[in-house]
């Protein structure tokens, strides 16, 4: 176990006659790594957040609701309550015609027991394929911030890990230099007069 004294801030930048070239290099490496880590994290976070938010905004503009008709009666029994809860929704096949005239079909969540031919809303992309309902503007901002934050952390980890690897190499090199110097001067200290 290493014996450590009190933590001294900015010790790498203080003047010291025992400071070696490797110590100065390590000081610059630490400064550079932290600078790159912060910059990389912020740049990746900003780029990914903007990209996600732009993509979700494009979906809100391009995706449109269409009226589809159930191809068959939905399984289950119809609820007598006017307010159908989410638990009473079942999957059923519906068919719709896209804006370009092409016919499509897909599975939708509909109230249990809905009659064949009943109108239901389906969200489609410009080609008429079924998609999910687009997120709102506030949901898009939250999603973009979260995804950007995770990407920013991952982006910041790259220079941080590379800097840690470089510092490990510098440490090994410094220990090798100390071993070489010890083997050269250590025997001088071991002599006795007599």
Q: What topology does this entry show?
A:
Elements: H1 21-62, E1 64-70, E2 89-97, E3 103-111, E4 119-124, E5 130-131, H2 137-189
Helix pairs in contact: 1-2
Number of strands: 5
| End-to-end gap | 37 Å
The percent range for helix content is 40-55%
Order of helices and strands: HEEEEEH
Q: Outline, from the CA principal axes? A: rod-shaped
Counted by DSSP, the helix tally is 2
What strand line-up does the widest sheet have? 3-2-1-4-5
Strand content: 15-25%
Q: Please mark out the parts with pLDDT under 50 across 5 or more consecutive residues, or reply none.
A: none
What integer value in Å does the Rg equal? 33 Å
> Which class best fits the helix and strand makeup?
alpha+beta
The overall pLDDT, averaged over residues, is 86
Q: Main β-sheet, in a few words?
A: 5 strands, antiparallel
3D structure, described in words:
With 194 residues, this protein is of the alpha+beta class. Among the domains are: 25-63 and 136-158; 68-74 and 87-133, no CATH class. 49% of the residues lie in helices and 17% in strands. The protein has two helices and five strands, in the order αβββββα. The chain has helices at residues 21-62, 137-189, and strands at residues 64-70, 89-97, 103-111, 119-124, 130-131. It has a five-stranded antiparallel β-sheet. Helix 1 (21-62) runs antiparallel to helix 2 (137-189). The protein is rod-shaped. 11% of the residues are buried. The mean pLDDT is 86. InterPro entries: MT1774/Rv1733c-like. Keywords: Membrane, Transmembrane, Transmembrane helix.
